[in-house]
Design a protein that fits this description.
mainly alpha, ABC transporter involved in vitamin B12 uptake, BtuC, 15 helices, globular
Length: 353
């Protein structure tokens, strides 16, 4: 016990040195303000992008003066089509980035993503079942959300009942349950109607925001915001989870309780994101690496910066998805095209070092 406390004291000293060696507060706040400005500019610009071009002047008039001061057709496009889609893209990117950053520290593994406990494949299974059963869009969302949460709950239940380290057990349980869900999804696709149901399932699984409306947005964004708030309130304790459990206990933090609360927050984010936009990969894996390169590994800085970079990144990807080609490109395909080369470069740079 004395050895553990000594290590905890050394850890505290090392954290202080790290804080002094990391970018100064002024630089951090400068970066924060710059990213906020970039995010706002990207959001406003996104309203102008699409097959129906809207002048920036009309967008600013709509925001500052209200819908009565712009043509009715422009007001309808902004309110009913572009507003829910833009908010959904930004919130999904921001939420997945925060969830991924939290998981990478919690599991002490830089290759962990928000779907490591099977939430994405679980939600995909729920959505595939709902599509086959010809349920309406709101039921597809609901079943995706519920199945995603149930799979993570089962992974946690299994992972905490083994003799291995909890982090390893959770990852193994999540991977196995994710594989099981993927098998059921494949079976459903094999048995589904090849002319209607199969294309709908396949397109949903590739990730897209084409069907997002205000009702769907409201259903998903509330639990997403709750999850983001939970993780942000845990930002100091997430730093502690990067230690061994014995060291965390010596500092006065119960790692199992913090880990459970963090999993709940990340699961709310991930399940809400998947039920709103389908399976969109790489965001929660890639953005935290970029963030740590800018501000270090302190979660008090990592989470806000990840929120802004992730939201802006996915919003840009969605703008490209709906404008690059005559037909809309699945959003998950674009994020993969950017994410995979990013990690190839990361691996090469890491190997050289």
């Amino acid at each position: 016990m004395t050895y553990t406390v000594t290590k905890a004291v050394k850890w505290g000293n090392s954290m202080s040195k790290h804080a002094n060696s990391s970018p100064k507060k002024s630089k951090y706040y400068l970066l924060l303000v710059a990213l906020i400005i970039i995010s706002v500019i990207t959001i406003i610009s996104s309203f102008a992008i699409g097959y129906y071009k809207i002048p920036i002047k009309d967008i600013l008039t709509f925001i500052l003066k209200g819908e009565k001061h712009v043509p009715s057709n422009i007001a309808i496009i902004i309110k009913r089509i572009r507003f829910p889609r833009i908010v959904a893209a930004f919130m999904i990117g921001a939420g997945l980035s925060i969830a991924g950053a939290s998981y990478q520290g919690m599991f002490k593994n830089p290759l962990v993503s928000p779907d490591i406990l099977g939430v994405s494949t679980g939600a995909g299974l729920g959505a595939a079942l709902a599509i086959v059963l010809d349920y309406p869009n709101i039921m597809i969302q609901l079943m995706a959300f519920v199945f995603g949460i149930v799979v993570v709950f089962l992974a946690y239940l299994i992972g905490t009942r083994t003799k291995y380290r909890q982090e390893v057990s959770l990852i193994l349980a999540g991977t196995m349950l994710g594989t099981l869900c993927s098998s059921f999804i494949t079976l459903i696709k094999y048995l589904a109607d090849p002319y209607e149901k199969l294309p709908a399932i396949t397109y949903w699984l590739m990730g897209s925001l084409s069907r997002v409306n205000n009702k769907a947005l409201l259903f998903s964004v509330i639990p997403m915001v709750i999850g983001i708030v939970i993780l942000y309130l845990l930002r100091w304790r997430l730093n502690i989870l990067t230690l061994n459990d014995e060291e965390a206990l010596a500092i006065g933090v119960n790692p199992k309780s913090v880990r459970l609360i963090a999993i709940i927050g990340a699961t709310l984010i991930s399940a809400s994101s998947v039920c709103l936009g389908g399976i969109i990969g790489w965001v929660g894996l890639m953005i935290p690496h970029i963030t740590r390169g800018l501000v270090g590994a302190d979660y008090r800085r990592t989470l806000p910066i990840s929120f802004l970079i992730g939201g802006t990144f996915l919003l840009i990807m969605d703008n490209l998805a709906r404008t690059l080609y005559a037909m809309e490109i699945p959003l998950g395909v674009l994020t993969s095209l950017f994410g995979a080369p990013f990690f190839i470069v990361l691996i090469i740079r890491g190997g050289n070092r």
